[in-house]
């Protein structure tokens, strides 16, 4: 149980520091600690990430950073696709599913490294989701609604398929599609992750996946504590250093996942 506490705290801290990436580490952590398969680990990871993300979103809401309508729209678009992703996950062979998961991890790592180096740029003037300078709220248009729905659909499918929170999709997408500040992007992403993650957990349970009560509760509570710690540390740490460290850790874990799938 001590190992579950430590791993849960690590996952929550990563989620709090980056606004993404918690689920991408939670699944392999549970697979290694408990010897579970990816479909077994996914709902527990999602539960922990969703709980931690809800805490972070609440903090962002208190600071008036969360664009809750955008988060709710992405979640409404993503939950049906989470069910579809869960259905596909039960049809794929375990090595192939693990390989897809490792590839997703490598994409996340590469994107984090590029962002740390300043490679990620955006033009807020061309973004379809823009803030109204008078009200401070997002201006809704068909283009904005379609863009956010697309982000939600991709996030939901990957949530159901791989058991990830989807923040690694939402955060860069909102950076490109909106002129929100980075703090608002992270806060909005956390709310969407919490909502879509709950849908992913329900989809997994609907397909008959059983969630062990005690290990799951320990992992979830530790992740929530880690989230609070991560949100405090983010004010003291350099964002590029955080992103580079996260990228390096993600590459290492992806290598372990591939080795276990094909060579272990």
Brief description of this entry?
By secondary structure, the chain is mainly α. It has helices spanning about 1-20, 20-35, 40-60, 70-90, 95-115, 140-160, 165-175, 180-205, 215-235, 240-264. The protein contains 10 helices and no strands.
Q: H/E element string?
A: HHHHHHHHHH
Helix content: over 70%
Computed Rg: 17 Å
Main sheet record:
none
Can you give the mean pLDDT? 84
Structural class: mainly alpha
Number of helices: 10
Assembly classification: single chain
Which term fits the overall shape?
globular
Low-pLDDT segments, ≥5 res: none
| Total count of strands | 0
Distance between the termini: 24 Å
Percent strand: under 5%
Topology:
Layout: H1 2-18, H2 22-34, H3 38-62, H4 68-89, H5 94-116, H6 142-162, H7 167-177, H8 182-206, H9 213-233, H10 239-263
Describe it.
With 264 residues, the chain is an all-alpha fold. Helix content is 77%, strand content 0%. α2 runs antiparallel to α3 (38-62), α4 (68-89) packs parallel to α6 (142-162) and α6 runs antiparallel to α7 (167-177). It comes from Chromobacterium subtsugae.
